[in-house]
Amino acid sequence: MSELMVTLNNVVKSFDDNVVVKNINMDIKSGEFLTLLGPSGCGKTTTLRMIAGFEQPTDGEVIIDGKEVSNIPPHKRDVNTVFQSYALFPHMNVSDNVAFGLKMKKINKDDIKRRVMEALKLVQLEGFAKRKPDQLSGGQKQRVAIARALVNSPKVLLLDEPLGALDLKLRKQMQVELKHLQQKLGITFIYVTHDQEEALTMSDRIAVMNGGIIEQLGTPDEIYERPASRFVADFIGETNLFEGKVVGLDEQHAYLDLSGHKVPIIPTTKVSLDEEVSMAIRPERVQLHNELNGAGFAIPGKVVEHIYVGSIIKTVVSLPGGDQVTVNKTPEVAHSFAVDQDVYVNWEPDKAVIIA
Ligand code: ATP
């Protein structure tokens, strides 16, 4: 088995004059859980459909397990797709739905029976073989669709917003189940979602897409902690964005002028003196203080409001010059700062990132 399972080489897709996927390059490893994440219309589904074979690239190559597959129809590729809509046959029971593909391949009856039962066991639906789809809940229908896609042991499973129709609680439960299933089977999963939390929870790596390009490809941790662009910083989680000028440089740090204060940052990209840059800092990385504690920098501000969101409180602080910063803390910490109180904010220099 090759280490790489799917490769996209300079893949382009246009519909008439509309270029919806713009020269994408990506290597997906065998056994990897890779998520295509991005807002509606960014080209996720079109990319997935090119891997599945439902769309032909306008340009470039799709390689699956070492083979260029552009001229190979979907049913002859070693991939299966799970759709949000389940796409079950309503007149067939669960067992027949799962068996359908194997029957088409004329596999012998005993083998079909065994494999269907194995697939239903994987998705914890052993007792449901004789039910019709309309006798199942949304989550159970989606499990049948997953069993049907897994029953012929594809090398790659493509999943297009498979949990999109489920309520939040079931969705979260299925996220964990799917991740465990993928780890157990070791099959390469390529998963499409616009839900950043879902992507962070499930993926080994995430490709963040925007306007037909990949803005960043990395582990959830890299994407969250080191967003490469303003779009990624904004789309994944919450972030405070500031514009500032580089007013100093030493071996380790760049110093930005933020709200009239000289703020150190450890840049991961090259910056030059006098350059105007954008800086992102996550709300949970910002520290609040009652008084100047002497060490490092501190920007004075005033508490504007507390916003209660369950396990944390978002404290909005206004800074000199009109900027605001949001600080996420536990209720105990947040409530030690009153609305209208004068405070100081700072953060560790390596927790802020300079973004394009
Ligand atoms: P969503 O999350 O809404 O499904 P997406 O990121 O999956 O969005 P795509 O479905 O890949 O986006 O669509 C990307 C763009 O391509 C959209 O502007 C869409 O209108 C366009 N598009 C997709 N399929 C076709 C088609 N068959 N003909 C013409 N345009 C298409």
TrEMBL record:
Q: Check the UniProt entry and state the signal peptide residues, or none.
A: none
Determine the domain of life of the protein's source: Bacteria
One protein family per Pfam:
ABC_tran
Q: What class of enzyme is it?
A: translocase
Provide the GO MF annotations for this entry.
ATP binding
Stored InterPro entries: AAA+_ATPase, ABC_SmlMolc_Importer, ABC_transporter-like_ATP-bd, ABC_transporter-like_CS, Mo/tungstate-bd_C_term_dom, P-loop_NTPase, PotA-like, PotA_ATP-bd
Q: What is its EC number?
A: 7.6.2.11
Residue stretches making up the ABC transporter domain: 6-236
Keywords in alphabetical order: ATP-binding, Cell membrane, Membrane, Nucleotide-binding, Translocase, Transport
Q: Where in this chain does the entry annotate a coiled-coil region?
A: none
Q: Which reaction does it catalyse?
A: ATP + H2O + polyamine-[polyamine-binding protein]Side 1 = ADP + phosphate + polyamineSide 2 + [polyamine-binding protein]Side 1
What do we know about how this protein assembles, alone or with others? The complex is composed of two ATP-binding proteins (PotA), two transmembrane proteins (PotB and PotC) and a solute-binding protein (PotD).
Q: What family does the database annotate?
A: Belongs to the ABC transporter superfamily. Spermidine/putrescine importer (TC 3.A.1.11.1) family.
Name-wise, this protein is Spermidine/putrescine import ATP-binding protein PotA
> What organism does the UniProt record list as the source?
Siminovitchia terrae (Bacillus terrae)
